[in-house]
Amino acid sequence: MKLINKNNSKTLSSKVHIAKNFSSRLKGLMFSNPLEGDHCLWISQCKSVHSCFMKFTLDILFVDKKLKVVKIITDFKPWRVTSICMKSDSVFEFSAGKLNNIKVGDHLLVQKTE
Question: Residue 87: helix, strand or coil by DSSP?
Fold first, then answer.
């Protein structure tokens, strides 16, 4: 799957990895190497994230149920915890420096790839 900003038709991620069960959401990107290229991790049912045991810095998009961006955090260092974002339903995590052409209020689309 890929992630697209519907407001400007730009591809944010060519490969969306999904964390949707408890164990995959809990683990997230802990102990992982940085994501390749423009890949991202989509964490469902998420209002806050941490970067404990992380090896790299993140850029984070908090989105509501309709995939509208409600909060953006860039350059999120290891061993941090975000505040709770009550409007958030899920989160997209990227290696730092990968988010361009995105702002709060933009609508995203997760699209199946062939």
Answer: coil
Amino acid letter, residue 76? F
* Domains recognised in the chain with CATH numbers: 2-111 (2.60.120.1140)
For 23-68, what is each residue's pLDDT tens digit? 655 556 655 666 777 889 999 899 999 888 888 899 999 999 999 9
**Using 50, 70 and 90 to split pLDDT, how confident is the model at 73?**
very high
> How far is Cα 12 from Cα 7, in angstroms, rounded to an integer?
12
Distance, in Å, from the CA atom of 5 to the CA atom of 29, rounded to the nearest integer, reads 23
Comparing C-alpha atoms, which of 114, 76, 71 is closest to residue 97?
76
**Assigned token pair, 99:** 């988010």
pTM of the predicted model, to two decimals?
0.89
Identify the CA nearest to 76 among candidates 54, 58, 94, 97: 58
